[in-house]
């Protein structure tokens, strides 16, 4: 690919960064540093025009909507919470796949009152229980949701489940499926217009990488 305009891509480190590397490589982009060992927040790449900004996963849609990054890679869980229509979401990258589920104790006694749900996914949880017509109380947490039922803070949690090992290690089981989650490519609306050729080339390269059989 030829990069004839500056392009900034917002990514979070860890799972999404690691799983994005083969997609970026397919578009000919190689980061100059590893965010796990470098403290740099802006990573150079092998192309002078292409920069990667390494930020919190929940900040990726904000950076992209406001044009601080042209493109970003964000989990569907994050995008569901972010909401709105301030950015384009043209491609499911099929990486960091998991499920958003309710979870709790397998032998939990039915509670006649309002169920308490601990989660960081407030909007998704609200929507899910509203669709079921259940009145629940949602408690916002920022992490370690599995702890909430154990210490009696909530009846259930809403969290992401991949292997199920985290739930199992805490005596919990997945209960109801809310959504299939994977990472999506998001694009700033102005960049979509102003850098259309380049954005389309990147989308094509990522789409091509996803369609390759994994070895
Ligand atoms: P697991 O034990 O494999 O079911 O993974 C569950 C833990 O990893 C939970 O703490 C989740 O919040 C987190 N997790 C799993 N998949 C993802 C993902 N795709 N993105 C972010 N967090 C995830």
TrEMBL record:
Single GO molecular function: ATP binding
Superkingdom assignment: Bacteria
Subcellular location, record wording: Cytoplasm
EC number: 2.4.2.17
Record-linked Gene3D superfamilies: Periplasmic binding protein-like II
EC class name: transferase
Record's keyword annotation contains Cell cycle: no
One Pfam family matching this protein: HisG
Biological process annotations from GO: L-histidine biosynthetic process
Keyword Nucleotide-binding: yes
Alphabetical keyword list: Amino-acid biosynthesis, ATP-binding, Cytoplasm, Glycosyltransferase, Histidine biosynthesis, Nucleotide-binding, Transferase
Record-linked InterPro entries: ATP_PRibTrfase_cat, ATP_PRibTrfase_CS, ATP_PRibTrfase_HisG, ATP_PRibTrfase_HisG_short
Catalytic reaction annotation: 1-(5-phospho-beta-D-ribosyl)-ATP + diphosphate = 5-phospho-alpha-D-ribose 1-diphosphate + ATP
Pathway entry: Amino-acid biosynthesis; L-histidine biosynthesis; L-histidine from 5-phospho-alpha-D-ribose 1-diphosphate: step 1/9
GO cellular component, one term: cytoplasm
Domain ATP phosphoribosyltransferase catalytic: 56-207
Domain notes: Lacks the C-terminal regulatory region which is replaced by HisZ.
Function field: Catalyzes the condensation of ATP and 5-phosphoribose 1-diphosphate to form N'-(5'-phosphoribosyl)-ATP (PR-ATP). Has a crucial role in the pathway because the rate of histidine biosynthesis seems to be controlled primarily by regulation of HisG enzymatic activity.
Family: Belongs to the ATP phosphoribosyltransferase family. Short subfamily.
NCBIfam families per UniProt: hisG
Assembly and binders: Heteromultimer composed of HisG and HisZ subunits.
Name the UniProt record assigns to this protein: ATP phosphoribosyltransferase
Biological source species: Candidatus Thiodiazotropha endolucinida
Lineage: Bacteria, Pseudomonadati, Pseudomonadota, Gammaproteobacteria, Chromatiales
Gene: hisG
């Amino acid at each position: 690919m030829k990069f004839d305009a500056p392009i900034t891509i917002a990514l979070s480190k860890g799972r999404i960064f690691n799983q994005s590397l083969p997609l970026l490589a397919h578009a000919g982009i190689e980061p100059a540093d590893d965010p796990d060992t470098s403290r740099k927040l802006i990573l150079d790449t092998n192309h002078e025009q292409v920069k990667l900004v390494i930020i919190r996963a929940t900040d990726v849609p904000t950076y992209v909507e406001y044009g601080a990054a042209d493109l970003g890679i964000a989990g569907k869980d994050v995008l569901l919470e972010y909401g709105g229509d301030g950015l384009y979401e043209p491609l499911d990258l099929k990486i960091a796949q998991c499920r958003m589920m309710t979870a709790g104790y397998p032998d939990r006694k039915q509670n006649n009152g309002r169920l308490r749900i601990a989660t960081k996914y407030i909007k998704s949880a609200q929507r899910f229980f509203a669709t079921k017509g259940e009145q629940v109380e949602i408690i916002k947490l920022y992490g370690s949701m599995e702890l909430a039922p154990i210490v009696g803070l909530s009846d259930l949690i809403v969290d992401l489940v991949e292997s199920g090992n985290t739930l199992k290690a805490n005596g919990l089981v997945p209960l109801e499926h809310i959504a299939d989650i994977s990472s999506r490519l998001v694009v700033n609306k102005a960049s979509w217009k102003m850098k259309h050729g380049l954005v389309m080339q990147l989308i094509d390269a990522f789409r091509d990488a996803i369609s390759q059989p994994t070895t």
